[in-house]
From TrEMBL:
Any Pfam family hit: EHN
Residue positions of the active site: 197, 322, 382
Protein name: Alpha/Beta hydrolase protein
Keywords for this protein: Hydrolase
Family of this protein: Belongs to the peptidase S33 family.
GO biological process: epoxide metabolic process
Superkingdom of the organism of origin: Eukaryota
UniProt-listed Gene3D superfamilies: alpha/beta hydrolase (3.40.50.1820)
Domain Epoxide hydrolase N-terminal: 18-130
InterPro entries: AB_hydrolase_fold (IPR029058), Epox_hydrolase-like (IPR000639), Epoxide_hydro_N (IPR010497), Epoxide_hydrolase (IPR016292)
GO MF, one example: epoxide hydrolase activity
Length: 409
């Protein structure tokens, strides 16, 4: 397999990852289409007539999307686009004897001073979240001028990486350990992490745990107001107040999916592995509801993601992180608000106005790390890397420029 542009692994790599190209077996693809065609859509009822009622996706949307998925969506085009980037798989051996095949997409630089940056996705996303940013970087730079090594892994249990073991419980700290080991295997003794959604948890765990991680940028940081600071000392802008109000509404009527993930993962895993249309309703709702209401994502964007979940059988192994909030429910401020995960390193925070989870005000996030970069955006929601890739990339580059100057490498 010829080396693709940006595909030359740095000379200092401790082990050589294997180049990888995705090609779903044609029979599996046809089976998915057959199941889409044969799967019924729920009959008419009061609850599924209008999106504005807040009960979830409508019957009309399901019927139209089913038709588009069957007759217009082109998985092979998606596959070809994925394969236009350098993709790799590498074997990571965990301390307790388990082996993980870790997939990642990368843009490697030929510069000796390139800064390694790992971008971590969330749920119900995948490495596909960062493909728009990879495209922008590929347009902006050449392999000789790219100032960074960009690594976009598939987290364990998601799509193209090995799922967690069957014999033991698995959590965010375990995923962070495997991701850290992956970066070390590429020869990086100093690197930056970035993440939204679950990827923000993985980023914080890595930044708080491993000295090789020198800086952290987040675009998701849900947390309660710090107890030790009075309201008068925590300035909150009007935009931030609106965000907190939306966050409260989300807690009241938008997180039922997370409770199911966290308390009955086996049951929902079986349900959503039984039909592509079931998966479409469950994940499609998130892509509809969690974005900037004035800038919805193209239908093709989330059908790519949902198809990848289905074709890799990865939904049941992608929701393990949701158990932790229930297992540590007595800890206030899970995850970002925990004192044990304070990051005494350069921290960046991008605030996107329509973040559904209630984006934390800057003054709150400053209690969790050494915030050296902050930028608020009027557009964009939970899927910032998909919704506003240009703005998020500009923030990441701006943060790295500030943070890396004082990093002790």
């Amino acid at each position: 397999m010829a080396t693709k542009p940006f595909g030359k692994v740095p000379n200092g790599a401790r082990q050589q990852p294997e180049p990888f190209e995705l090609h779903v077996d044609e029979q599996k693809l046809q089976d998915m289409k057959t199941l889409i065609r044969l799967s019924p859509v729920a009959k008419d009822c009061y609850e599924n007539q209008s999106w504005d009622r807040g009960f979830g996706v409508t019957r009309d949307w399901m019927l139209k999307t089913k038709e588009y998925w069957l007759n217009e969506f082109d998985w092979r085009a998606t596959e070809s686009h994925i394969n236009s980037f350098p993709n790799f798989k590498t074997i990571i051996k965990d301390d307790d004897g388990y082996e993980f095949s870790v997939h990642f997409t990368a843009l490697f630089s030929e510069r000796s001073d390139a800064i390694p940056i790992a971008l971590f996705h969330g749920w119900p996303g995948s490495f596909l979240e960062f493909v728009p940013i990879l495209s922008l970087l590929r347009q902006k730079y050449t392999p000789k001028t790219l100032p960074y090594h960009i690594i976009v892994p598939s987290l364990p249990g998601y799509t193209l990486s090995t799922p967690p073991p069957l014999e033991k419980n698995w959590g965010i700290s375990d995923t962070a350990r495997i991701m850290h080991s992956t970066l070390l295997s590429l020869g990086f003794s100093a690197y930056v992490v970035q993440g939204g959604d679950i990827g923000s948890y993985v980023s914080r765990q890595i930044a708080a745990t491993y000295p090789e991680c020198k800086a952290m940028h987040l675009n998701f940081c849900p947390m309660p107001r710090p107890d030790d600071v009075p309201d008068s000392s925590l300035p909150v802008t009007d935009v931030e107040k609106e965000g907190l109000e939306r966050g409260m509404k989300f807690v009241q009527n938008g997180r039922g999916y997370g409770i199911m993930h966290g308390t009955r993962p086996s049951t929902i895993g079986h349900v959503l592995s039984s039909s592509p249309l079931a998966l479409l309703a469950w994940i499609g709702e998130k892509f509809l509801a969690w974005v900037d209401p004035e800038r919805p994502l193209p239908l093709n964007t989330y059908l790519e993601d949902i198809s990848l979940y289905w074709l890799t059988d990865s939904y049941p192994t992608s929701i393990y992180t949701y158990r932790e909030p229930f297992e540590v429910s007595n800890v206030k401020g899970y995850f970002h608000g925990q004192e044990a995960l304070h990051v005494a390193k350069p921290t960046g925070y991008s605030y996107f106005k329509w973040e559904i989870g209630g984006p934390a005000p800057k003054s709150w996030v400053e209690r969790t790390g050494d915030v050296v970069f902050h930028r608020a955006h009027e557009r964009g929601g939970h899927f910032a890397a998909l919704e506003r890739p240009g703005e998020l990339l500009e923030d990441i580059e701006g943060f790295v420029e500030v943070a890396w100057k004082n990093v002790e490498k």
